[in-house]
Amino acid sequence: MKVKMRIRCGKDLIQEREIVEGVRRMVDRFKSVMMVVLLVAGVAACNSDSNQGAAVPRTPDGNPDFSGIWQANNEAHWDLQAHAARPGIITQEGPYPYDYARVPAAPVLALGAAAGVPGSLGVVDGDGEIPYTAEAAVIKQENFDNWVDRDPELKCYLPGVPRAMYMPYPFQIVQSTNKIHMAYAFSSTARTIHLDEVAGPPDYTYMGHSVGRWEGDTLVVDVTDFNGKNWFDRAGNFHSEALRLEERFTPISPDAIQYEVTIEDPNVFTRPWRISMPIYRRLESNMQLLEYRCIEFAEEFLYGHLRKEPLVTRWEGETIIVDITRKIPQGDALYDWYRK
Known about the structure:
Blueprint: H1 10-53, E1 68-72, E2 91-92, E3 103-104, H2 106-109, H3 134-145, H4 147-150, H5 163-166, E4 171-175, E5 179-184, E6 190-194, E7 209-215, E8 218-224, E9 244-253, E10 256-264, E11 273-281, H6 299-303, E12 314-316, E13 321-323, H7 332-339
């Protein structure tokens, strides 16, 4: 920057020098700031390029190596579909007969905000809708309205696939050349993806039967032979024994996998539909998979109503008293409750 001034008197000459020096200091500060900005931008760009260009770990046979501990980071375990935040997983009509005015129902009232359901943009691709048949849509709504009695998660049953993949718990992948083992924290669940030819299971199961193959860098897994007792989430979305899945695991970076599932069940849905989400590697230096053997924590919920003398009957806090009355379903309804 050049500054020209014509000064004829001595006093004005002093003022000229002061102005020029001030301008020079401003220019120097501006240059320094710009150098810092450019340096930071360069480092950020370098880091970005480094992350994007980082090599995906591979096995000796050249396929992506997914070994490690992973976890989804979304709200899909609450509800696969887009939804607004709700005051509780179970609600009842509030002071006004509108959905926005609903309040937490008795089973979750004492938990306050901890029992609320966070909003989500959803993970269902396309129009975001799950294409239920008319009959299945009625069952889905009944499931939603009777969450406490019907959700298998509350009984600590094996979560099934794909639900196990996006529950709010970590899972571990151990990969070899012809088998990929997945161990889940919840309920100490596990499944094996067979990359070789194996016989099918002797009966239907909660976790299904998984057979995989490689399509380039994408692991494609066909999952069949479900027992039809699982849900997809806590919102009552469900399937039957006819469920067939095609899972696709594609590396995004060394620490992220794009997980996509095409879902087909002609007994429940009018057409195939798909969900997708990223799954992230847990990067803690001391990370390890810890068991969450929840069945022992659910025993009182599962069997407490069969005690001769009830054990859990009352809880009293500073502002609320909760009285528990257990009941035993009559006849075959008792066994049906456990089978749900």
